[in-house]
Amino acid sequence: MLERLFRAADRRKWTLALAIATPVWIALMRMLLERYLSLGDVPLRRPAFPWFAHIVTFYLTMSVTLSAVLVVLGRLQWKQAMNQVGMGLALGCLPPIIDTLVLGRGKFAYEYAPSSFPWLLSGPNSVLPPGETTTLWLTIALMTFAVWRASKSVLRTFATTVTTYALVLIFLVGIPAGSQWLSARTAMAPSDWRNALFGVAAMFGVVTLLGQWKRVVTRVPQVLLPMLFVALGAAQRGVFDGPATLAAVMVALLGIGFTLANDWYDRREDEAAGRTTTLDENAAEWLALVPLVFVAHVLATRVELGLALVGFAVVSFAYHADPLRLKCVFPLSYKTEGFLGGLCFFAGLVAATDQQPSTQSLWIALLVTIGTPIALVFKDLKDVEADAQAGVKTAFVVGEKRGVSRLTLRRIAAAGLTLSLVLVSVWSGQLALIAVALAAPTALIFVKNETRAVIAATLLAEVLLAASVAAKLSA
């Protein structure tokens, strides 16, 4: 019987729609069952949509992290692993049904982050009733069977049991307790932090699932830059607080997703440069879509920040993905990058729901949107030949076609970067930072290797941005 179920899962074609629909459907059923079975006649005292969004994020995180375990320890293909875990997600509907049959309607409840550590995944009927305990242990058993079925290795099977048990405890106790700890120190709702922590866990699972950790490490500067723009917006507001941290985390999740997905959309340029990608179209779509589920929760609880994040995601999609792929359309590619920078700045500016941005702050946000493209022209220096061969019109490609020398184009890009960083230094109130601001464009001109020049300029510019944020906040 069990073998038949696994074979059926293996034969099923993986689709993006089904991968999203499965946790959404399970979350809907679980929410309805809890509402009418565990709560009984007790009125619902929580907003329905944030509750539903939380359950979706929980099951989505479970789906990708458990699938990653099957990929690493069972050596399954990632789509096969997700199909098997998706089949097991249906277990999430069982606890309210079992507990109603055993205990009766309205005589049990589910509490996450219980006061005592549930080593046996069990507790009082008001915390971890029998149905929940049974389902959690059944999940561990099915994961163990899946890896044994795939590997026939005792060591890998044992490692799967231990890893799955640890993940269950993290989701059951660790993340809820961590969210309460952060809530107490930031005066924010635990649900805000719970969503962020589940988002981090989910992205960790997706990156592991798709084997993209090497790419994440090499793309750290690209991911860090949007977070620094969020920090600039928070510094303009006067404090880098809990809401700003939440905004930075969510922008980082979106940034990682779209930056990695871009490897698929850039495959033609990469092939021209002699590079290959390990992603396919499904993996790219999955990377871009998973963070959006967690953005939906932010949109339900912090509207202004949620809108900024949705805007960032929409513009990122238009920039990277077909059919628009604005990064190939000159000069819209640079204008789009300006919108991305401005949206990140705006996210830091409006992260706190109890503060409205001043008129001056909105003007600065507009200036950031206009100035970001001028500052970021230099980043295209490292791929001029590949971009030209693939038909991507960057400032360097267009300039060389019009007879402008590479050195002159370098100097123009360095001048734009200099102007932008000097303005940031003036904004910070520490004119001494202007000396630091000159380091990035200097590296851009004098480092001969173009890839190293871009990396050095990027890192030095990010150091300047971080120093400016610190100076502004300490003023």
Automatic annotation (TrEMBL):
Residues spanning the membrane: 14-32, 52-73, 162-181, 193-211, 246-265, 286-318, 338-354, 361-378, 427-447, 454-473
Domain of life: Bacteria
Coiled coil: none
Bilayer topology: Multi-pass membrane protein
Major place of residence: membrane
Protein name in UniProt: Uncharacterized protein
GO CC annotation: membrane
Species this chain originates from: Archangium gephyra
Gene Ontology MF annotations: transferase activity, transferring alkyl or aryl (other than methyl) groups
Intracellular or extracellular location(s): Membrane
Keywords: Membrane, Transmembrane, Transmembrane helix
